Structures are given as C-alpha cells and as structure tokens.
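Justification of computing resources. Each target in the renewal requires a structure prediction run like the one illustrated here; the chain below, 306 residues long, is used simply to show the kind of job we budget for.
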Amino acid sequence: MRTLFFISSFFITTILFAQDTLMPIIFLDDVVISEENNGFSVEDFIGYVKKDTTFYMGFKHLRFYSHNYSSELNIFNKKGKTIGTLIKNGRHYSDGNKAWIVNDTIIDNGKIFKRNGDYKFYTTEAFDEVFFPSDTIDVSLKISDNKNKDDSQNMRDAKTVGFSIGTDDGVEQSKGGVSKKLAIFDIQMQQYYDYIIGETIYNDKECYTFNIRAKEDLSSRDKKKALIRKIVSFFDKENFKVIYREYKFVYSNWFLDLDMDITVNMDYVNGKHIPTDIYYKGFWNVIFFKPERAEFILKNSDYIVD
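Resulting structure tokens:
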C-alpha cells in the first residue's frame, strides 16, 4: 500500500538530489544575508538548503547509536475521540553493524489489535516498521547515491519526501501529479510558495530559519497544487546542521485524502547530531480503505555515542 509508506516511512533515510532550477524570490525577515556579513550570499544559502544531508545523517544516527525510547500512538475516530492507544518503552541497541530493539513495556488500550493479534490499523504497522523493527536491521553511517535494492518504490518515494526538500528526483508516485507537487523549488511550483530566511534562538543556539510556505492568497484550485503547505527548518549557525524541522502536507483527489503535520527536534550528543523528539499527527483516507486518524509521539534519550 503506497500511502502507508508515504505517511510514515518518510522518517528512515534518503539523500538529496539537487534540482537545476532558477533561483526563487527570497524574502528576508529581519536578517541581512551577504558575503560580507555572513561569508555567503542568499544564493549560497539556498544551495546549502537544497544539498543538505545533515537531517538525513541525524536519522542514520538514530539507528546507529544505542538509546532509550518512549512512544505513544493514539488512534482517533472521525469525531476526534481516542479509540486506541499503544505505549512502548524500551531500548534500541546497536553494535555498529546491526541494530535491534528490546521493548521493556508495551501497554495497549482500546481498538489496537484484531482478535488474531494483528494490528487493526495500517498506521500502527507503519510506525512499527520504521521505529520498532521486529528483527535485527543493518546500520551504517555511509551516505550513498545508490538505491537500496531491498526498498520498494513506496519506500523510496517516502524517503525522498521526508529528507529531500523540494525535489521530485526518484519519485515515481505520479498519480494525480504527486511527484510534481513535491518539487517546490521547481520553476512551475515557485508561484505557489513564499521562501523566507530569518533568525531565531533554539535551545540556546543561534539559528538561521528557512520557511517555505504556501502563499496565503492562493485560490482553492491553486491550493490543491501545493501538497507541501509548509516546511520550517532551523539551521545551527555554527555548523549549518538542521536542528529543527516542521512539515505540513495537505492533499486531496479522487483516490487519496491526507492532512499531516510532522515535527522533528534535534540535538547533539558528544558532537553527534541526533533526533530527540518526533511528533506526527495526521489523517489519511485511501479509496477502498477505511480512513485513519492518528497521533504519534516518540522521545529518544540516553544515547551512547563514543
């Protein structure tokens, strides 16, 4: 099921393939960007954003280094009432080649499992596959342009959505023009977005902010062309690593409706860039399947980084 991977597997790994496009119009929000003041130009900044692999590497660290995790998944009905809850606490182990998890606590309430013990919802299966694999998995810090032969096109599409800002390279999920709508730096897509550079303080770190958001005055017809409604990134000024990212996806056509919000908080452990808090809240409805509404919170702590 393609949508299952699109919704949640986007968290795993991918690498950016930069687009050859014209420079979009960039707004500066109370910040001056120049080679004299910053050592780089606005054009350089956009180049850094499009070629960034630090967010990707942070998620490779998530699997590569041992750590504790605490998660809670809530499933809702169409009225917003919680109908199922799944809580997991445990330890993610890694020896640098293989990784595996040990659940210390699993608590479920409501409609999480079928009578045969299988999960009742696809969303639950998806987050298990991404964060709580049932078997050992290979881990590596190597960044490669080569596609993983074990990945389905579903997984490759999802990875590109999650880690490659504004590129549709390698995305073959073309139904309804989905892949085209992901290319938010593309010349044809720039008319739907504002691109804003600013500054902020995040966790006592000075950061550049880069906000890509759908224009507020878009018509209803044009809004449908802006699958990505918002991407907010905070770049640590000291090393230009992404230490915060926020996504908003909205899409609707005859076979698929979705509305997803995703937030990722990053930090450093012994100089390594790692995800600490991950939040997802989303709705999806695919033809021939029951719609699902869910909220997922994952907290990672006590990393062992040599």
